[in-house]
Design goal:
The complex is a heterodimer.
Chain A: E1 2-9, E2 14-20, H1 22-25, E3 33-37, E4 45-48, E5 51-52, E6 56-62, H2 66-73, E7 79-80, E8 82-87, E9 98-104, H3 108-120, E10 124-131, H4 140-144, E11 149-154, E12 161-162, H5 165-175, E13 180-184, H6 187-199, E14 204-207, E15 223-226, E16 229-232, H7 233-236, E17 239-241, H8 247-254, H9 258-266
Parallel strand pairs in A: 9-10, 9-13, 10-11, 11-12, 13-14
Antiparallel strand pairs in A: 1-2, 1-7, 2-6, 3-4, 3-8, 5-6, 14-17, 15-16
Helix pairs in contact in A: 5-6
Chain B: H1 6-9, H2 22-30, H3 39-42, H4 50-58, H5 62-72, H6 76-82, H7 89-92, H8 104-117, E1 132-136, H9 140-151, E2 155-159, H10 168-171, H11 180-192, E3 196-198, H12 209-214, E4 220-223, E5 229-230, E6 243-245, H13 246-255, E7 273-277, H14 281-292, E8 297-302, H15 313-321, E9 325-328, E10 330-338, E11 341-355, E12 361-373, E13 376-379, E14 383-384, H16 388-392, E15 416-418, H17 421-424, H18 429-449
Parallel strand pairs in B: 1-2, 1-4, 2-3, 4-15, 6-13, 7-8, 7-13, 8-9
Antiparallel strand pairs in B: 5-14, 10-11, 11-12
Helix pairs in contact in B: 2-4, 4-5, 4-8, 5-8, 6-8, 9-18, 13-14
Classes of the chains: A alpha/beta, B alpha/beta.
């Protein structure tokens, strides 16, 4: 069993959990994810590994569907039925001078270990972080430890610019230039960032979170079409260069199940 | 052997074949001629001493019958159900001359079930030899390999990537052909033998082969990770919602227990009209599962004719009885969708031409097309080995299909062995069991030499 050794609520909808899982922690690298089953009938839920120690892994959970809400009910000291990983390919850290991270909602969680890795390798890192409101902004202080400039966008304007992360990016691109943009958040947000960046001649890496079951390349549910070729997000990703991703197809697949539709709608930054 | 009524069973997941009663088993066993040179044994990939166990059934000694099978095959209750006996032991039975070979599979199942009924555990004396071996994958190859090694005295750890043990027996074969309680009981039995089972460990990710050798100190490693990577058709529209791989569909239902009733949190939605593409056993399983989930029209699209179907005849007959429609000589060329939601499958009508390299008549396009409206399509055209281990293990040689290259189960890395579908490509449970057993002998010989 996998004990929850720390639980830190980030806001009403989002919890940070540190879980004892030595087999997952041992080889974990930035960009990789794990899969959790809360109880013995549970769904397999993929979650990005935000950070890890030698024996524990930290994840950030947005309570939006049945299974994540069930996970949200678990307290420090409780044990989870299954935790498996690390899954997926580690992020390819590119040798660049200046990186812009763009996070939407809980997309800040998977973005955090990547940007931290860039910073630790000497890249200069800026961040645009978007959320529904002031309360839903997560990891801001953690990012502040290594980001040079942090720009905030909220839906209600309770902190930072009122509007989308792309509104902030548009303005930023008038004066700043970057070697690479990493955008992680709802699909519609990542698509909007990729489209904007293309206009500015910028390359965008994204991290995909399609529906998955096993997470080891067996089921093919997480398939994604990139420049006409099929990739499995679980084993080939979850990070991909964003330029040639068929986001329309991905959005349709993401919406195959009502629960996922629900998740998509309320994920922050997604106004669809 | 009696079966559930087709029109009742196509609405439930209970076992189709009901098994022999004691009397039926004894009666059937009495027909065995006890050949001096048994052709059935030679035709069994695990070389089970078939006439011996049949004689013991006749003598009402199913316990010793079980011991007899167990020596060569640790999973009689499983193999009795899922082996293609008609092309192995039963196909070789001399009584085929009379048109009624011995129902060896049904008898093996009877022996396996009897032993499970009384909760019997093999009370074997294991003499530890102080060496430890890791087995990667808890499917048929891994279980057979682990059992054989354990009985030779090795300390054995089995690592499984998923949250349940049994591999394809758990995620792939539906409960109406192989009840999951049987798989669980067999695993429990092996646990009692002293084999240690570890779930949620992905070799190549959680642990590398190198770490297993150098940090955990395994003297040898057996890779029996099967063939779990679904092949795709490579036709337009395969990315649409509503197109499943058979793996996804069966994993949802078998492993995650998805039902339209949402009794379990993992969802499934297939609609009324379901096309299953392919003609093998997995395609039959997928079609029959779709029917049981409530689909009104389930049809198989297969590009050759009926006699070329690779599925076991019994599975084809069962599928037909349950109302599965066979649209033969149809080759899917496109999945048609609206807003990336599947709406129809377009097929080219085929005819059979000259024999191809597989010895079967090659399907040739006629230039005529037919489009079938569907709510979902399940692609079931085979599997390749999962590449996680080979990608993560420098020096582990694979062929162009991703199958691990071996010489008497020894891979290109010293001390690392492989067997089953990861070497053979998708094959049968019993072949994997045979491979696991043979690989154990190879591992034992290797470890005795070093």
């Amino acid at each position: 069993m996998y004990e929850i050794i720390e639980k830190k609520p980030q806001n009403a909808d989002v919890d940070l959990l540190e879980i004892l899982a030595p087999m997952v922690a041992k080889n974990a690298k930035p960009g990789q994810f794990l899969i959790i089953r809360v109880d013995k009938n549970g769904e397999r839920i993929p979650m990005t590994i935000v950070s890890h120690t030698e024996t524990t892994v930290t994840i950030i959970v947005q309570k939006v569907g049945y299974s994540t809400m069930l996970l949200g009910k678990m307290q420090k000291g409780d044990a989870l039925e299954d935790v498996v990983g690390p899954l997926g390919m580690p992020t390819i850290i590119r040798p660049v001078k200046k990186v812009l991270g763009i996070a939407g909602g809980v997309g800040a969680a998977p973005l955090y270990p990547q940007l931290r890795e860039y910073a630790s390798r000497g890249s200069s890192v800026d961040l645009i972080i978007g959320a529904r409101n002031r309360d839903h902004l997560i990891l801001k202080d953690d990012f502040a430890a290594f980001c040079e400039n942090i720009h905030i966008a909220t839906d209600d304007g309770s902190i930072g610019t009122k509007g989308f992360v792309t509104d902030v990016a548009k303005r930023l691109y008038e004066t700043e230039t970057y070697d690479l943009v990493i955008a992680i958040g709802p699909l519609a947000m990542m698509r909007a960032v990729v489209e904007l960046d293309k206009k500015h001649g910028l390359k965008t890496d994204v991290s995909l979170n399609p529906i998955m079951i096993d997470g080891t390349g067996m089921c093919g549910n997480c398939r994604v079409s990139i420049a006409g070729k099929t990739y499995f997000a679980c084993v080939d990703g979850p990070d991909f260069p964003g330029d040639d991703i068929d986001f329309d197809e991905l959005l349709a697949r993401q919406n195959s199940y009502r629960e996922e539709e629900h998740i998509c709608r309320i994920k922050l930054g997604d106004k669809k | 052997m009696q079966t559930q009524d087709p029109l009742i069973r196509n609405h439930n997941f209970n076992e189709v074949a009901l098994g022999f009663s004691e009397n039926e088993a004894i009666l059937e066993a009495s027909r065995c001629l006890q050949c001096k040179n048994p052709t059935c044994i030679a035709a069994c990939p695990a070389s089970v001493k078939i006439p011996d166990f049949i004689r013991l059934i006749k003598e009402k000694n199913s316990r010793v019958a079980y011991d007899t099978i167990y020596k060569d095959n640790v999973l009689p209750a499983v193999c009795g159900r899922v082996c293609p006996q008609e092309s192995q032991c039963e196909g070789a039975c001399v009584l085929n001359r009379t048109g009624r070979p011995i129902a060896i599979g049904a008898l093996e199942r009877y022996v396996g079930d009897e032993s499970l009924k009384c909760g019997e555990c093999k009370d074997e004396k294991i003499i530890p030899n102080g060496k430890k071996v890791a087995v990667v994958g808890s499917g048929p190859a891994g279980l057979a390999n682990a059992a054989s090694l354990r009985r030779m005295g090795y300390d054995v750890d089995i690592y499984e990537a998923l949250h349940e043990f049994g591999g394809v027996l758990q995620y792939g074969i539906p409960a109406f052909r192989l009840p999951k309680t049987i798989v669980e009981s067999e695993v429990l039995r092996l646990e009692k033998l002293g084999i240690k089972f570890h779930k949620n460990v992905i070799i190549g990710k959680s642990l590398t082969i190198d770490q297993m050798k150098n940090e955990l100190g395994y003297d040898a490693i057996f890779v029996g990770t099967g063939a779990g990577l679904p092949k795709s058709l490579g036709v337009p529209g395969e990315g649409h919602s509503g197109v499943f791989s058979a793996n996804e569909f069966l994993i949802r239902v078998n492993l995650m227990k998805a039902t339209p009733a949402m009794d379990y949190p993992t969802p499934i939605r297939i609609g009324d009209n379901v096309a299953v593409i392919g003609g093998g056993n997995v395609a039959m399983d997928a079609a029959r599962v779709a029917k049981r989930l409530g689909a009104k029209n389930v049809f198989i699209l297969y590009r050759r004719d009926k006699s070329s179907l690779p599925a076991r005849l019994e599975e084809v007959i069962h599928a037909e009885e349950e109302g599965i429609i066979f649209k033969l000589l149809h080759n899917p060329v496109e999945f048609i969708g609206e807003n990336h939601q599947l709406k129809a499958v377009r097929c080219e009508k085929m005819e059979l031409g000259e024999l191809d390299s597989s010895g079967r008549a090659k399907p040739v396009g006629t230039g005529q097309y037919e489009t079938f409206p569907v709510d979902s399509a399940i692609v079931s055209i085979g599997e390749n080995p999962n590449p996680i281990i080979s990608k993560a293990t420098p020096g582990l040689e694979t062929d162009r299909k991703g199958q691990i290259v071996v010489n008497n189960h020894q891979t290109s890395i010293a001390g690392v062995f492989a067997g089953g579908d990861v070497v053979l490509g998708a094959a049968t449970v019993i072949l994997a069991i045979g491979e696991g057993k043979d690989a154990a002998i190879a591992i034992d010989e290797y470890l005795k030499k070093i």
